[in-house]
């Protein structure tokens, strides 16, 4: 029988609810500000005199930096605590977007993208923070709501950015507005009652608190992403509830020796790299590439296959994005329907995604495309949440920053590979990219079926210990 004793935070649901809602606001404002800038970047860099090749190289700078920094910053948030890491990322991102508003040359533009590429991980840290705040059964619901709030910001941001662009110096106004939004976000994070909130969970027989360390022959008790102490445990054993109570978030020090921070970050990344998480990372990679291939040439395919004008295609994309945001609210009810069996839910959502991509590639009319895009937005939203939840289930919430950061690095690899694969597939047919996406989704489903089997075996083996 599994029993859990929660800390002061969990005994005061009103306070916890207020903090979670504040994190929703942070996620909304984050993507609202970012989406004001994204559609304008390519136009601005070309206006600075960059050739298409140079513009492409400059545009890839952000993705490359994100690839290498996601895991490092996520692990750093486990070491120094969520408050300090989140504030640092928000403020340095604000500096980057402010410099973007001052960029009058390609050199300044590239320099402005460096702090953003290195430290724009506020959403990942917010997800790690939410995993600290809620129990495992609540996590899919809360993550779904957070993704929905963030997606709404991503939908509304381009509208405001487009409006500002119509005025003189519109790009610079949008950049400074985005920087101001990140400063406001940092102020909101600073005002949260960190000194009154305890997130450390005292557990008597918890199935999750030691999974990450047990898989790596190392048990480390972590509170708010900051290492408290360590216990050496045998593989398959569980950490007993011998903790000394909750640890305040304000007890975490950003100013501990740099060598100690680097050592802790390196050890956490090594433990993830040497763990059995790679099958889940492969699932995430295949899923990311399949989804990106679906959207990669969507506008061009609609024009060539059905002679749709870009304006109508834009309406279709906006419709799909809106459904994707609303689908975040369905994650909680659907996981309850599956009784929190996330491997099964991920398998079924991926099989549905595979079928929908196939129907889109073979669609004889626009109405079938509209129908497939409706369910595609829902299935992919649920699939992304499932993958994140499975990573945290297997790895353990005490290393949530490292795990979520590693997942973002894997997604960044997908962003690099997808355009290349899409270009090669388009040489054969406008339906080439989604057809390739079907193949990858099928491979993803096969990989997920093995993940589900292993998950059931884990539950069977651990049952006698409960």
The overall number of domains is 2
Distance between the termini: 5 Å
CATH homologous superfamily caption of the largest domain? MFS general substrate transporter like domains
Averaged pLDDT:
76
What's the story with the biggest beta sheet? 2 strands, antiparallel
Work out the helix count: 18
Kindly report the CATH topology of the largest domain: Growth Hormone, Chain: A
Give the C-alpha Rg.
22 Å
Please describe the topology of this protein.
Elements: E1 4-5, H1 8-11, H2 13-47, H3 52-80, H4 82-102, H5 106-119, H6 122-133, H7 139-165, H8 170-191, E2 202-203, H9 211-215, E3 219-223, E4 226-231, H10 258-273, H11 278-296, H12 298-306, H13 310-327, H14 331-337, H15 342-361, H16 366-395, H17 400-426, H18 432-462
